[in-house]
Structure formats: C-alpha cells, structure tokens
Amino acid sequence: MEEKETILVTGGAGYVASHVIVELLKSGYSVIALDNLQNSPLADEVEKPASLRRIEKLTEKVVTFYKTDISDEGALRNIFRLHKIDVVIHAVSFKNANQSPLLPLCYYSNNFLKSLTLLEVMKEYNVKKLIFSSSSHVYGVPQQLPISEHHPTGIRCPNPYGRSKFFVEEILKSLCDSDENWRVVVLRSFNPAGAHESGLIGEKHLRASSNLISYIVQVAAGRKERVTVFGDGTCMKDYTHVTDVATAHVKALDKLREGSFQHWVAYNLGSGRRNSILEVIRTFSILVRKRIPYEVVGPRRSDIGSVYADITKAKTELNWTPTKTIRDICVDSWNWYLLKTKGSTL
Amino acid sequence: MEEKETILVTGGAGYVASHVIVELLKSGYSVIALDNLQNSPLADEVEKPASLRRIEKLTEKVVTFYKTDISDEGALRNIFRLHKIDVVIHAVSFKNANQSPLLPLCYYSNNFLKSLTLLEVMKEYNVKKLIFSSSSHVYGVPQQLPISEHHPTGIRCPNPYGRSKFFVEEILKSLCDSDENWRVVVLRSFNPAGAHESGLIGEKHLRASSNLISYIVQVAAGRKERVTVFGDGTCMKDYTHVTDVATAHVKALDKLREGSFQHWVAYNLGSGRRNSILEVIRTFSILVRKRIPYEVVGPRRSDIGSVYADITKAKTELNWTPTKTIRDICVDSWNWYLLKTKGSTL
C-alpha cells in the first residue's frame, strides 16, 4: 500500500474523534491525536488516554499523541514543525447543547476562540486543508424539514453550542475567501450516537452526557431512575451512528483531494431516517427486555422540535451512505456500557 | 453636581472612542481609557496618547489611561481591582471593512476573541453593564431599506468585519440569557464620519482610512490624486457625524439605569438622512472651492450597495436626535485636517 497522508485530529480523545481515528487507521492514514484531556476521567492519563490505547489494540496501529491544548500556540507550532501534516480534522468541542446556555463564555471560548489559534498556526505552516466537525445545531430551529445544506444557518440558534459551531464555519468561509489555497469540508452531524461495534470505544461520560441514548443506558442500568422526556416525546430526531459519522470524515479526505474541489463545502451527516424519543425508548426496551421508565415534562427553552437531515448531498458528492439503524445504536451503546462495567456483552 | 459613574472605555485612543470620551467628560462621568496603542502613529506614546491629552485640554478634565491590551487578563484584573467601574463601553475594533476580507483571522482575533477575555473579567468583578459599539455592517446586504433593528443580522455579511461585530452581539445575547444581571446596549453606527468641531480630535490615520470622507480630505489636500468611486457613485449611504454617535453612547448610559431595562437591546445610530458618494464629493468640493477629481471603477466584492438607517427606535427610546449634516461632517473633517497639518481652520 502506498504511503497515506498524515492527519492531525484535534480533540482526539473525544467521542466522535475516537471513532474517526479508528476509521482513519483502518484506511491506512497516519494519525496524530491532540487533546488537552480536560474531559478525561483519570488525571494520570498523561501518556496516552485509555481510548487511544484501546484504539491501538483494536486496529493494531499506533497513534501519535500530544497532551496539549490547541490554544497553546507554542506547543502547536512544535507539532507542526515535527510532523509533515497533510490535513487537520478539527473535532475539539464542548458538545452539551443543553448545558451551553448556562456557560456561554465557556462554550465560545472552547469551541470558537481556540479554533483561531489552530488556524493561525496552520496558516503559518502552510497546512490549508481542514475537515471541521460541525453540528446540525448550526441550523437552529428548522424552517423546513428535512434540512438540506441550503437551510439558513446561524439564525434562531437557541444555544451557544450551535452558535459557536456556526461562528467557526463562518470564519472558515472568510479564510477560503481570503486565500484560495484553503480547502475546507464542514461536516454537520445530526445527533451522533452509539458506540464502536467492538464495544471498546464509546462515549466516556455517560453520566454527564446530554445524549438521549446515553441517558437511556443509564436508566436501563439502574443508575438513573427514569428518562426525562422534554416536549411530549413525539419530536422526530435524526440519530446518526457515530461510526457512520466517522466513515464520512474519511470520505471527506478523498473529497479534499479532488482537483475540482471548491474551497468550502458543507455536508449533512444524518442517518437518512428519523425516530421519536418514545420510539427510541421502545426500541431500547425491547432490546434489553426491560421496562424503561420515563417522564414527559414539557419542552425546555433550548429545545428546537423535530430535526432531521436531507443527506442527498453527502450521499452523492462524498459517495457515503450511512449503514446503521437506531437498533444498531441501541445495541452498540448497551454493549459499550456492559463491557465497560461488567466485561460482558449482549 | 452629584458624583457620576465611572466608565471604562476600551479602545480609548480610537476614533469613535475619543469622541465618546469627550461627551462622557462633558456629562460629568469619570473615564478610564484603555488602549494597546497598536494603531498609534508614535511609538513613544507610552504615557498618554496625544488624542487623550487633547481631550483633557478640550474638556479641562482628566482621563485615567492604561496602555494595555484587553486580551491581557492580568492587566485587566488589576484595573478592575483598582477602580470601581460601573459600566464598560466596549469600542475596541479594527474597522476597515474593506481590508477585513484579506485579513480574516486578524479581524476575528482582534474584534471578537479579545472581547471574550474582557467579558470574563467583567463577570469576575461583577461589572455587568456594557455598551457595545457595533456597526451597521452586522446587517450585511440589506433586505429592505431603511434598515430597522428588526432587520436580520449576520446573514449575507460580506466581510469579516461585520461578522466579527455580529459574533460579539450574539455572545452578549447569550450572556444576557444565561444571567439576568447583565445589561447590554448595542449601538450600531452607520458610517461614523467627521471630527470634533474643535478640530482637536478626529480620525488619526487619514491615509489608511477606508472612510470616504477621509479619502476625500486626502484628495482635497493634494495627498492623493483622485477619489476612487466603487460602484457607480449613486449608492445611498448614511454618514453619521461621530459627535452624534458619541452623544448616543451617553444617552445609552441613561438607558442602562432605567428600572424597566430589558437585558439586551440594539439601536441604530444613523443620521436620519442619506447621501450618494457623488453628492458627498460635490458637497466637499463646494466647501473647499476646489474640484475633487474622482474615478468611477465599478463595484468591489465586499460592497453592499445602498445602506441607511431607520433611527426611530433610538430617537424614541434613547431620547437621542442626531443634529449634524453631511456638510458638518465635511467642514469638521477638513478643519481637523487643516489644524493638524497647518495650524489653521476654514
């Protein structure tokens, strides 16, 4: 196999990034992962976070790791000096959309401000290819469904999380306008959920997660009493398996190499399906053969109703098709939990 | 006179801020001005910039000055520790909209990123009243004219300057949503122009200015050959005298004190009139009794056509009325130039 490119993944110990790294390694890319380990449960993870060690076991490949914050300009420069980096996958993010209205400065600082330092250093070292892990939250309250990439962004975003992602997208647009050597793919994921089918990697902080599936897992495991259902439970959401999200990142790398590539392009990463919260609870319940207690409590201020994607563009232009269903998401999430806590799977 | 509040003005050596400080001092406020003097023509202005010294002469009042960058958290903390600050007027800004597409990271970093540090420190010291000097550029390409505050913002902003202002406005909104103790007035100025009627303060860098009037002054003075007119010269713009913009900032302070004040509010600061570029050139030409050569060269990519404000809201709610005309702007700009270079006025 010919030598593949070297990809720097920011937020490399994070949920989506971990799955992206698995797919990159499987496709033969060299990976450098960067993380400040701020969200790491173990303070002694100074060498290499557990998630990356499990990834190495799973793929039998090595990941180069730097414990550093992307706002640390000096450290970033060192990394760009030491390695010939071809593309950056920028996946640093606080991602609890519902928590973000309470901590707006924190979200803007982490998700947006730090991106500027990264872009400055990339520019300095003439690394001008970037894949940005964005979110469906940039669309805010949908004006029409399903949401295509033509849907306006940045308007009626009810939370700083979505706004911070939108801001980064806009900066990337300005960069591409200012210098035609930049090539940027923006990937807008719709509710990434689930875990790797091996059960070896998944969302670390089930307890703190705002992800519905992680919440259901906690209830099924008896660690939480019931699922709190905001709204009336009938809102249709688009739960996208994190492995599908990850494979799209690899497809985006192929896209960046195309001669005809047009500087800045955004793709929706959705499942191509939709499910109500109550349907998800039911699916999970059948799977684990347990009643999952839930309580319907009415909408939160930051809720935005039904949201699901039109994924025609990603299918056509990235040659990507999501292959996993909501059942896969439930199975893999439960197995990830079981393996982590009990050493067994379904 | 009872003791008035202490106002911290960021970017205090800048064009708009200088005029704001004059009006604050005239109204009896104590002023602390902050500036990194990055745009200062003289590197030896370490004590107090010339503009502030002229302001002190003009008002016979003292301005406390700190040469510091608002991204310097430590220095900011010191200032907030030393002084009981009541309100911050945040006027730090690179403001050349036409230059900004070439230097996007620079604009986002200076106009946006640094605001986050300021807000963090304000929060820490429980100073939660802010007036933000924003710009008509947040409206982007107008969807209808005149532009009222209901006009969408952040959409079709053709330049990073406008986007960076929009981003700050959005962060301030998030802040007010997260904590009801914040009180924010956003002032969206439409082409601030002109100079103080004393001829003592005005725009420092006539040569580097993207301001049409400053450009005309350069041509009238024989320092530039001709005015380059982008578009066809018939676009209607709203040139607002910088002194009118400044008095609105003082009115906004009164607004912040009102018991019924609603957390976050934006006002257009326009002249209530509109003039085409060719009209402005003609007005100036008559005033200085000279032909002002110009060349029509077609639109730039960052041009957004006619832009003028509906100022009903500021008139009604701030009890503010602009009093100066385009002729005043021309007279004051010319006098500022003459006094600076020749020691005489019209």
UniProtKB/TrEMBL annotation, chains A, B:
Q: Which cofactors, by name?
A: NAD(+)
Q: Which GO terms describe its cellular component?
A: cytosol
Q: Which UniProt keywords apply?
A: Carbohydrate metabolism, Galactose metabolism, Isomerase, NAD
Give the reactions, separated by semicolons, that this protein catalyses. UDP-N-acetyl-alpha-D-glucosamine = UDP-N-acetyl-alpha-D-galactosamine; UDP-alpha-D-glucose = UDP-alpha-D-galactose
A GO BP entry is: galactose catabolic process via UDP-galactose, Leloir pathway
Pathways involved: Carbohydrate metabolism; galactose metabolism
Q: State the EC number(s).
A: 5.1.3.2
Does Amino-acid biosynthesis show up as a keyword for this record?
Answer: no
* Organism domain of life: Eukaryota
In the record, the note on similarity to other proteins reads: Belongs to the NAD(P)-dependent epimerase/dehydratase family.
Oligomer and partners: Homodimer.
Checking NCBIfam families in the record gives:
galE (TIGR01179)
User: What name has this protein been given in UniProt?
Assistant: UDP-glucose 4-epimerase
